[in-house]
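Thread: Flagellar assembly protein FliX, structure

OP (GT): Posting the sequence first so everyone is looking at the same thing. Length is 131 residues per the record. Can we get the structure tokens written out before standup tomorrow? I want them in the notebook alongside the other entries.
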Amino acid sequence: MASVSSRASVGKYAAGQTFSMSDVAGPARVARAAPVAQVAALDAILALQSVGDAMGGKRKAVKRGTALLDLLDGIKADILVGGITAERLDALVEELSVYRDRTEPGLDSLLDDIELRVRVELAKQGRFPEF
């Protein structure tokens, strides 16, 4: 702690007192720095999460394509027995209305072709949903 002493100390001030730092300890030292390995581990975890998201997007796209193809197969079966059900058409419209993330060019192109086929089948039945 800093103290104010009498004139006999180091410097003189107009008021007759001096200032000294005799009771003050030196600067505190840092015990140790944080290891860099913890930061590197965090970076690795974040990188793995981003890869997982990409794989999840691809998996969702494949699932969507499979669902649309299954619905188209159902329409084919309905046509063979005499008519397409309104429920099946509604399911197609609903599946198309769900937003699709773009994952990779080859898969996106295939899904675009499937969605085009679904839109053609809907147009044949007089349904023109807005997307």
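GT: Both are above now. Quick notes for whoever picks this up: The two ends are 74 Å apart (CA to CA). The helical segments are 36-81, 86-97, 105-124.
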